[in-house]
Amino acid sequence: MKLLTGNDLKSGAVIWWTGADWSIHIEDAVDVDEQGEAILAVEEAARRVNAPYIIAGEMTPDGPRPAHIKDRIRALGPTVRPDLTLKPADPTAGDWVI
Amino acid sequence: MYQYDEYDQAMVEARVAEFSDQVRRRLAGEITEDQFKPLRLMNGLYLQLHAYMLRVAVPYGTLDSRQMRMLAHIARKYDRDYGHFTTRQNIQYNWIKLEDAPAILADLASVEMHAIQTSGNCIRNISSDQWAGAAADEITDPRPWAELLRQWSSFHPEFSYLPRKFKIAVIAADEDRAAMRLHDIGIQIVEKDGQHGAAFYVGGGMGRTPMIAPLIKDFVPLEDLLSYTEACLRVYNRYGRRDNIYKARIKILIHELGADEYRRQVEEEFVHVKSLGIDPPKAEFDRIAAQFAMPPLDASAPDAIDRSDPDFALWVDRQVAAHKMPGHAIVNISLKPVGGIPGDASSAQIDLMADLAERYSHDELRVTHAQNIVLPHVRKADLYAIWQKLDEAGLATPNLDLISDIIACPGLDYCSLANARSIPVAQKIATRFADLDRQKELGELKLKISGCINACGHHHAGHIGILGVDRKGTENYQLLLGGSGAEDVSLGTITGPGFDEDGIVDAIERVTDKYLAERAEGERFLDTYRRVGMAPFKEAIYG
Amino acid sequence: MVEHLHSDGEEPCVTLDAFLEQSNATAVRLEPDEDARALIPYLDRLKLIEVAFPAFRDGRGYSSARILREAGFTGELRAQGDVLVDQIAYMKRCGFDSFAPEKALNPADVEAALTRWPQHYQTAADGAVPIWKLRHG
Predict the structure, then answer these.
(1) CA of B206, closest CA in chain C: separation in Å?
(2) Which parts of B323-372 are beta strand (E)?
(3) CA torsion through residues B313, B314, B317, B318, sign
(4) Which is the most buried residue in A28, B115, B238, B381, by most CB within 10 A?
(5) pTM of the predicted model as reported, rounded to 2 decimal places
(6) Does the beta-carbon distance from B162 to C136 stay under 8 Å?
(7) pLDDT for residue C9
(8) By percentage, how much of chain B surpasses pLDDT 70?
(9) Which contiguous run of DSSP H or E holds residue C50?
């Protein structure tokens, strides 16, 4: 699957395309298939996203998972500061990255 | 230390106004990200892995307690309660919102600080010796020259769109504590016939093509310092490569031209530039230098230290350095607790260090290129009280220049350029070698980790260096031996095939075991490596 | 700000090569990789030198401008191309006195950019008195 990601222009937060909007949670991300470039152009022009790009991913039982470790760390947060990730209460959240 | 006058203050305030307007135009869609990017970078604002990152300048690593407290305030108010001190004596915040950036810059300006030119293809923060003004071995305080260069380079109209970034370091001691020869320009203030002058080393750097700067001029009269620097930059701006970002640093130009031809062009340019009257008069230097005068230290302060507490004695032996003034010392505060994140400090720790500086160090602190903090002017009689407070705050790790005093870039945990994580590797190595007796047995051992080829973690200059690479989507770590960023500067050599995260820790242990087996009396790891060469270590690592 | 923007209906610029090959032209265009010093012998008969900025990130034109002003050029020095409002204050300091941006600039933004800085730290080609000189009279 292909995922569309970028950063929120104002806050800089990592965001994922949900099909209709943007979410900070990768669980909400959808497969943009071949539509990625078109959505990206519209959303960037509207300044709803900054520095957007399309990545490869796969659907897992836990939801979409980026193919590359860099985007998995983007999706979770810094592995060395679990308290600052999106899943601070889950001590095993870092395993998802590796 | 240097205090802004009305002119300096007006300049930082104009910058805040300018950047506020640029942010407004970006948010309103009047400029594209492509146009905005170099503007935000020239104010230290990156778009990183998780958010915007703001890099705040600490010019030549010097700051006072009021400024240090502002750094803590920014961490608390706009970020997530911590900051990261960097190898160029700056501090970075990892979770900044673009819409907050103008307010942060305004807060910084209120304490004579800024983020000017902490990124972008311009002249970056001028770095220096963290012990400047206090070190027993310096011939003069290099910081007045660094401040003169700071002002000259700020908003330089000709050199704000250089082929690539440009880093300058200034030192004034033979012991190089600032990795001077790994800068685009390294300046050492030297003495000849009773006169001070500047030795110019140009074209050093790390990155994917590391180079040690050759000596371009052994003695530039100090009244020509800015003219000579301007000539060096003009030749670079005109002829540095712009066709390939990886070949755009000045080191490549000098490598391609040869040091002699570059020197010839600079000398020719200098004759012209000197006629333009760009060098300030001595009165301006004197005005700046007066502000770096040694604080009023009591020369009759007692020299003895009560070493009856063994933990304190351990810390004194490792973290305290010689001061010019009897009865005084330089305190090095380690930001490398075992298992911690190298260079990170919480708001509370930053505030505590500010309090200690105010009370015990004539209101001065320094940031070091090894990502530690220094209290430069401390009475020996106060060391015990300082140690107790540091210890309570987790800041009393006695590991300066030992294997766990690791330089590490933020790596893939934070950085969008990184290929591999650096911090977890640093944590695992520090944990493996946590036993302090073992560390002391190994002696001075500078270990430096970069998460990509850009070498922000100075891996080329580590006695032991680690470079994180991406091998088919997984993190892999190459090992280098034999580098140094000090006066015995050298570049490390890759040992061979890389390792995974646990493998690299094992490999380092095999290297240190081999060192202990091979070393001659009094040899540091680096000395042994230089004497016996790579082969025995390679054999030990790969068998 | 009209005086900073160039007017049409003037003599077209020739290339540096054409100029050096015995041209009587009084207007010449300098590309980023061309040596401004080649024009120094002819400055007194040139009315206009147009310095090209094909991409705003390419800063060679700033040095070209200063070299020409430092050599005594008093004619029109024009920045042409990818000239953006956030660069023109630096350009002016380097000696440019007219701007021909490919994309029109907002006059209010231009005005703000050119009046932003109360003083300057360095000596450059605009005749501004540097801060160090103001400090010492």
Answers:
(1) 23
(2) 328-333, 344-346, 364-367
(3) negative
(4) B115
(5) 0.96
(6) no
(7) 62
(8) 100
(9) strand C48-53
CB contact under 8 A, B49 and A70: yes
Are the Cβ atoms of B421 and A84 closer than 8 angstroms? no
> Which strands form B52-56's sheet, in the order they lie side by side?
B45-47, B52-56, B91-96, B82-85, B344-346
**Model confidence at B473: pLDDT above 90:** no
Q: Does B412 touch chain A (CB under 8 A)?
A: yes
Q: Are B61 and B368 in contact (CB under 8 A)?
A: yes
The pLDDT mean for chain B works out to 97
Residue with tokens 């401390």: B378
Strand order in the sheet with A14-17: A22-23, A14-17, A2-7, A50-60, A63-66
- Amino acid at site B180: M
Instruction: Report pLDDT digits (tens) over C51-65.
Output: 999 999 999 999 999
Please, what sign has the CA dihedral across residues B522, B509, B511, B501?
negative
Contact: B39, C134; criterion CB under 8 Å: no
Q: Quick one: tokens of B362?
A: 């004539």
Query: What distance in Å separates residue C131's CA from the closest CA in chain B?
Result: 7
* Cα–Cα distance, B505 to B491 (Å, whole number): 21
Q: How far is CA B145 from the centre of its chain?
A: 17
Mean pLDDT of B235-263: 97
Answer whether residue C12 shows pLDDT above 90: no
- CA distance, residue C121 to nearest chain B CA (Å): 6
Is a pLDDT exceeding 50 seen at residue B416? yes
Two tokens, residue C92? 């002016």
Contact flag B157-C94 (C-beta cutoff 8 Å): yes
